[in-house]
Amino acid sequence: MNSNWIKIKNNSKISLLDIPILDISDLRIEIISLCRGSVSVENGCINGFRPVGFFGKDWGRGDTRLFVVLSDDKNGVFYVSSALFKAGIREYDSITPEIPAFHIFEREFFEEFGIKPKDHPWLKPLRKNQDDYKFFEMDGEEIHQVAVGPIHAGVIEPGHFRFMCNGETVYHLEIMLGYQHRGVESLMVQRSSNRLAESICGDSVIAYNLAYSRLMETVKGISVSSKAQLIRLLALEMERAAIHIGDLGAIAGDIAYLMGTSVFGATRTLVINTMLEFSGSRFGRGLITLGGVNFDIDDDKIQRAKKTFDKVEKDVCRMVKTMLKNSSVVSRLEKTGTVSTERAAEIGLVGLAARASGLNTDSRFDFPDKYFNILNAERIHLKGTGDVNARFKIRYKEILQSFSIIGKIFDKLKEYEKEPVNCGYEVLSKENAKDVFAISVVEGWRGEVVHIAMTDGTGRLTRYKIKDPSFNNWYGLALAVRNNGVSDFPLCNKSFNLSYCGCDL
Which domain holds residue 218? Predict the structure, then answer.
């Protein structure tokens, strides 16, 4: 790697002053060169780099600085570079025609700073889109549009889906989000806290709070005990198992397999009720804090949890095997909502959706810390057919994987029973937090949750960037439903189960 990039590991920091500043045309050439291989896949591994960060910061006097973070999954490192747009320079040649995975990143950058990526193939508003949004149109005698949302039944968050159909067949789906404008990233700069971090995405409380905590601990030099680190990983895997079980039930409900809905719903409740016993919240709110965790887990709770999880695992296994023996179930899941391995790599899918399409990306294994490494967890290998069936099966396999990891953590905690769960941090100075660029990536149940922080010369937080896995994957859903019946959309949608609030930051 040349001097145009600086290397950084997960949960670490570099000096903001050391990040190279290139001309945007040179940076574009560098990006294309490094990422071009990412559209090719070998044994599930992406051959090139892929984007995890592409965002701007007001650099004063009308200037804008673009920061780019590329992931080298094979070697477990990130590469960072930047370009400075002087006041008056409001465009550059788009990267998307060469590397499609940048399409959503460039749209966001354009919307926030007004710097246009020339020749971008789909340069539409991402969040500020309620005024005069022009949907894709098709002509033909049997072409018709189906509009769903943005107001949905129940408590689902706002999002608009516009289907272009020929009869019952979906030719194109356009998804419009951005109805909430919460200003989360600005709030994190103004008054970052664990409570705010865990409120960003309500079904990923642990993943978001863990990413925030690790990031701030990295910036400020806060130490965390081994015991607390293991409890955090325990909670993360409990969150993964609980949501995956609930999603299996939701998929069962969408194909009218009500026994599955009932069984998975009941077993999910057992997992989140155990989280309630551990932390006082079924979703883990208040568990993780800077410096560690707020609650210890004694041996009595561990033994009860082991019995509970043993029952949950057996019930889930029995129900999944029963479902997959049913030909009516399999006929609804197989070859529905397919995204090929090559297309998944091309558009930059992440998380379980990527793994279901045959990509091996998983930041737990690609960017592990020593606490995850000592658990000797095994990476899941699944023939990625990329359909609803594959997304159903990857959830099932990850549930079993999570319970295996949880069991190992329970046993490992005995080695650290005398350690504190919170080391505290009040006496730390800001000296080591000056001019910092830091990154933390956590593999939430949907996929990689990316948090990036920047500070100024006084150690004050000046930029906080968040990327939810849904940011990458909404377009994957749009592609998945093409050439399916419009009535299959709820099933496809549930098999991805993407976040609205994770994009409406």
Answer: 184-473
